[in-house]
Design brief:
By secondary structure, this protein is of the alpha/beta class. It has twelve helices and 17 strands. It has helices at about 5-15, 20-35, 55, 70-75, 95-100, 115-125, 145-155, 180-200, 225-240, 250-255, 355, 390; strands spanning about 15-20, 40-45, 60-65, 85, 110, 130-135, 165-170, 205-210, 245-250, 260-270, 275-280, 300, 315-320, 330-335, 345, 370-375, 380-385. Helix 5 runs parallel beside helix 6, helix 7 runs parallel beside helix 8 (about 180-200) and helix 8 packs parallel to helix 9. It is globular. The model has no long low-confidence stretch (mean pLDDT about 95).
Length: about 400
């Protein structure tokens, strides 16, 4: 987005403010599809950002839902159930039963454990349904099931009329910037699937893989050429796509670039020779990967100030939020000559997790408004500011 567009948003809606750009969102999905094999499907992990689900629903193949609350959001938005992958390490039995009993198919249910398998199967039997499932293979964490358990499930339930075992789901982490690591994971995963088929005689039709594609928040240069990185990754996927459907579960990689967080300077001071600018937002509303105590300068600039305007300047500022904790530092020694009360800072790549994962209840600060800018460049308020003090106030139950 241009500074003029962002300034217009800040003036119209105030700060702090999240701004999500539908144009960038669509361009990003198109970029991913351009560099991935033609038949690879994209499933968006909506925990990364729920506020762009209406725009993404039109351009991705599926939406991963990990809680009853996320399912309620999809229902409120009128998202068709057949778009949803019902996932999550802790599933709600009432939600599963309601979805199965509705008769409307979902894209898939993931199975994280034998107890989840029993929950889903029992509901299917109770309502005379046959439900599609993906068996989640663990990567060594609390998620998913051991390889031996997955094999037992396939062997024991492949012919179960209540279950349609589509295939395997696998996710092993985020921010993977090593093609060699991705190659090792895919080789191991493909070998497991082939071994499973040989041992059980059952054909795996779908492989849903969470590659954890990286976002370079700090321009560290770990991925000098993302297009080349994706092309190499695509070469790893092609042999697998010729044998079965491949679905990539992506969150951060899809939405990080579409978001900008705007916050205004409300006070300035110089303490012990260092300049401090206090802003009306803070770290509770801005979550960057590995962003602790501003050890690295995030992608941020002052609206109306050219990116290279501060090059070589010595007028540096520590940008601090509104929380009463010394940890609330958004940027250290940021070159910003002329910074003053009323200046608006634009933190880029704020589209993933910032509005959903921060310490939003801390100090009972209000939650920011959220704006989505449509394809014509028009901003739309999709959530008003919300008070959190009402949620933090104890009430008498008598």
């Amino acid at each position: 987005m241009t500074d003029n567009e962002l300034t217009r948003c800040a003036t119209t809606f105030g700060t702090p403010l999240y701004v999500y750009d539908e144009r960038e969102l669509r361009a990003r999905v198109a970029f991913l599809r351009e560099h991935l094999p033609e038949h690879v499907e994209l499933c968006y992990a909506m925990k990364a950002n729920t506020f762009v689900v209406p725009e993404l629903e039109q351009i991705v193949d599926g939406l991963e839902v990990c809680s009853p609350g996320e399912e309620s959001i999809c229902a409120e938005l009128g998202i068709s159930q057949d778009k949803l992958v019902i996932s999550g390490v802790h599933k709600d039995a009432d939600l599963i039963d309601a979805l199965v009993s509705s008769g409307a198919p979902v894209r898939a249910y993931t199975v994280e454990s034998l107890s989840q398998l029993e929950m889903i199967t029992s509901s299917a039997v109770r309502h005379g349904a046959r439900v599609p499932v993906l068996l989640r293979l663990t990567s060594g964490s609390q998620f998913g099931m051991d390889a031996s358990v997955v094999e037992d499930v396939v062997r024991d339930h492949a012919a179960d009329p209540a279950l349609d075992i589509l295939g395997i789901q696998y996710f092993s982490g985020t921010q993977k910037d090593s093609i060699k690591r991705l190659s090792r994971e895919l080789t191991k995963l493909d070998a497991f699937v082939h071994g499973l088929e040989e041992e059980t005689g059952f054909s795996i039709r779908v492989l849903e893989f969470g590659p954890g594609l990286p976002v370079d928040y700090y321009d560290a240069g770990k991925i000098a050429d993302e297009a080349a990185f994706l092309d190499e990754f695509a070469d790893l996927l092609r042999p697998i796509t010729s044998q079965r459907r491949v679905v990539l579960e992506l969150g951060r990689s899809v939405v990080a670039s579409c978001g900008t967080y705007l916050t205004s300077v409300v006070d300035t001071k110089t303490n012990v020779g260092s300049n401090y600018a206090i802003v009306d937002g803070g770290m509770h509303q801005l979550v960057y990967y590995a962003h602790a105590m501003a050890l690295r300068l995030p992608p941020v600039h002052v609206l109306g100030q050219a990116a290279d305007a501060a090059a070589g300047e010595t007028d540096e500022w520590n940008i601090c939020g509104s929380l009463c904790t010394t940890s609330d530092i958004l940027a250290k020694r940021m070159p910003a000559p002329g910074l003053g009360v009323g200046s608006v800072l634009a933190f880029e790549k704020a589209g993933a997790y910032c509005s959903t994962e921060g310490m939003l209840m801390f100090l009972s600060r209000d939650l920011p408004k959220i704006v989505v800018v449509d394809e014509k460049g028009e901003p739309h308020l999709v959530r008003d500011g919300l008070r959190t003090d009402v949620m933090n106030t104890p009430r008498s139950l008598s």
